[in-house]
Automatic annotation (TrEMBL), chains A, B:
Protein name as annotated: Peptidyl-tRNA hydrolase
Upper taxonomic lineage: Archaea, Methanobacteriati, Methanobacteriota, Stenosarchaea group, Halobacteria
Annotated keywords: Cytoplasm, Hydrolase
Gene: pth2
Enzyme class at the top of the EC tree: hydrolase
Summary of the function given for this chain in its UniProt record: The natural substrate for this enzyme may be peptidyl-tRNAs which drop off the ribosome during protein synthesis.
Compartments, as annotated in UniProt: Cytoplasm
A Gene Ontology cellular-component term: cytoplasm
Source species of the chain: Halovenus rubra
Catalysis performed (reactions): an N-acyl-L-alpha-aminoacyl-tRNA + H2O = an N-acyl-L-amino acid + a tRNA + H(+)
Top-level taxon in the UniProt lineage: Archaea
Chief location bin: cytoplasm
Length: 112, 112
């Protein structure tokens, strides 16, 4: 089981901002997962991997693939109080789900 | 309501690594919170702020203060598969809890 969080590398987020957006996405997708999958993922150490994408449309395409594959997912928009314009799409979390199901969605992306 | 995640700035974590550790801490402390506090925090947009500390002992002292104040908290140790030695303490999440309760614990720290 794992969760992948894909964050945009093209919008100049600072490190702390990036981390907060990744955490939002992670929690949101976690809550979409079925309780047995939540438990299995946490019991195995809640593996998380952060990958990068370079556009909003990339995140939407990945989210569509996740939906088609039946993998829990969540797209995050920033409220825009600080660094970003309100509503900026910042991150997508995919899973927790079996590793191969997550890889079907996010397999080609680079580590952040 | 807010959650503050304090991450170590002294151990050279890369951006993606930092984000994953912050997300671990966030979820873990979230699960320590009482369900009404969880709901109130999520309903208000799950405010998260990432701050920095410069040693393991700083994180343990903050965690002690959180315990004394009755604020949910979680310390994260990295499994050490990649960048860090196994067992390295990387991050502490405090809250979700009322803003003033969280500030009592983490008030002096700088943004990451």
């Amino acid at each position: 089981m794992k969760q992948v969080i894909v964050a945009r590398a093209d919008i100049g987020m600072g490190e702390g901002k990036l981390a907060a957006q990744v955490a939002h996405a992670s929690l949101q997708a976690y809550e979409e997962a079925a309780p047995p999958d939540q438990r299995e993922w946490k019991g195995g150490g809640q593996k998380k991997v952060v990958l990068q994408a370079n556009s909003e449309s990339d995140l939407f395409e990945l989210a569509d693939t996740a939906r088609v594959e039946g993998v829990p997912n969540a797209i995050i928009r920033d409220a825009g109080h600080t660094q970003l314009e309100p509503g900026t799409v910042t991150a997508l979390a995919v899973g927790p789900a079996p590793e191969d199901a997550v890889d079907t969605v996010t397999g080609d992306l680079q580590l952040y």
